[in-house]
Design a protein that fits this description.
The protein has 209 residues and is of the alpha+beta class. It is built from 4 helices and 11 strands. The chain has a single domain (2-207), classed as Alpha-Beta Plaits (2-Layer Sandwich). The chain is 18% helix and 34% strand. A hairpin with a 4-residue loop joins strand 8 (157-165) and strand 9.
Length: 209
């Protein structure tokens, strides 16, 4: 699994209805993209949920590198770059996934990114992040680490994932929620305008190693 996101920060007076129309018109084009687990069309609006900016920030979980490459070198990303300028694309290696209730599409998301200090053991940091996901089935089972009970599944959770950028040693956690994100959920808050999920059910749950 590969996680990917780019953030397009827009002027403070930008009409976010333009982004909403764009997603309404074009979001379905990724609904059957090969190799794509999910694409969450995320936005932040200045003054809402504590956001200081207007931002369009789609987030992807790719099942295959071929699918990711097919998007980045294809007409979809080319069109986005023509309209907004080519954004920096962040990429993380998937470490684990939780399947929540997926009968309805999510409406909000939360994302955290945490730098790992040079003195930190990356494997232990990833295990701790996974253990903090509600309902994560893989208990801290790496040899030498204590096991601990899994947190109960959250009824509003749609999907949650943990991933790592080893070039920056940054740990990412993303959660998609039905309805408003829980008040105690940490991280940056987004609205989900649309969810494409052609191969979401083929992404393996649990630890990815």
């Amino acid at each position: 699994m590969h996680a990917m996101q780019y953030e397009i920060t827009l002027p403070a007076d930008y009409d976010m209805a333009v982004i909403r129309r764009r997603v309404a018109d074009k979001g379905h084009l990724m609904d059957d993209h090969p190799g794509l687990g999910l694409k969450a069309y995320l936005v932040r609006e200045r003054g809402r949920d504590g956001s200081p900016v207007n931002q369009y920030a789609p987030f992807y979980l790719w099942r295959t590198a071929e699918g990711m490459n097919g998007f980045l070198w294809g007409p979809g990303f080319r069109g986005l770059s023509a309209d907004f300028g080519r954004p920096v694309v962040r990429h993380w290696l998937g470490a684990g996934l939780v399947e929540g209730a997926r009968t309805d599409a999510p409406t909000t998301a939360t994302r955290t990114t945490v730098p790992l200090p040079e003195t930190a053991d990356p494997a232990e940091a990833v295990e701790r992040a996974l253990a903090e996901l509600p309902g994560f089935p893989g208990l801290l089972a790496r040899p030498g680490l204590p096991t601990r009970p899994a947190l109960p599944a959250h009824p509003a959770l749609h999907t949650a994932a943990v991933a790592v950028d080893p070039s920056r040693w940054e740990l990412l956690s993303l959660a998609l929620w039905h309805g408003p994100a829980p008040e105690d959920a940490p991280g940056t808050r987004y609205q989900v305008l649309h969810l494409s999920r052609p191969e979401l059910d083929r992404l393996p749950a649990g630890r990815h190693w």
